[in-house]
Amino acid sequence: MSRSFRNGAVAVGVFLVLVVIGLVIFTTRITAGHVGIVYSANGGLKDKTLPQGIHIIMPWEKVTEYPISTETVSYADVMIGTKDGKPIKTTLQYNYHIEISEISAIFNKFRGAKSTTIENGFLKTRLTEMAKEVTTKYSVLDIMGEKSGDVSIKIQEKFHDDVKGIGFVIESVTFTPPMPDEQTQKAIQAKVDAQQLLEQYKTEKEQAQILADKARIEAQGRADAVIIEAEGLAEANKVKAQSITDKLIEYDKIHNWNGQLPTATSDAGIFNMTLPSQQTSK
After folding, report:
1. What is the pTM of this model?
2. Smallest Cα–Cα separation from 90: which of 78, 74, 75, 72?
3. Of the four, 4, 106, 130, 168, which is 20 to 30 A from 157 by CA?
4. Strands 34-40, 61-67: parallel, antiparallel or unpaired by DSSP?
């Protein structure tokens, strides 16, 4: 192998190394669901953002990524208060993204901090404060019981309104009620039992009211029937009384006569009476 060939091979190798180093230095990769803010110490921010993919940049330029698709952030062991003054430890989780039109403003406001730094600093503080404003209006029994869903909704609403003007869009917040201690668990169970008993009383009262209404309706029906029957009988008697005449009485006597002569009793004994039509001439 000639010396000139070896020198050429070395030159090619050096060139390839320089190319690789140049690719490392002059390129950056933006991950999916993010955009990149390009800036430099001398020139400040560039006018445009970098979409996902590989891009060539100058050695003196730097890139900070911000999420424009949904990001999920969770904070464990967050201390909050309750209406009855009992502190509890909970987990808060939320989904958010950044408005692409506000990327530059967010970069300037937080001095180029990465999104993870903002999440673990500013956003965590704001979410914790909003959660405390909500939970201090509920008792510990409500928070650990049937009102936990309401708490999540109200925290989401307050957190969303608190940071929307900056460019952060809160999509959802999940409030995880802490596990109650033994004493709290007994109090929760007692409240549940009392509520169930109250529902039972309400059901029984409604059933009793239905039966009472039914009995009253039936009694009213019977009373109405008696009145109607009495009114009908009275009306019938009235009509009957008006229709009775002397001729009708005589007709009724003759029509119902059984052919036997009436008998009469005197001091002399019993004697027969005959109608004039039945006497024989002598």
Report:
1. 0.57
2. 78
3. 106
4. antiparallel
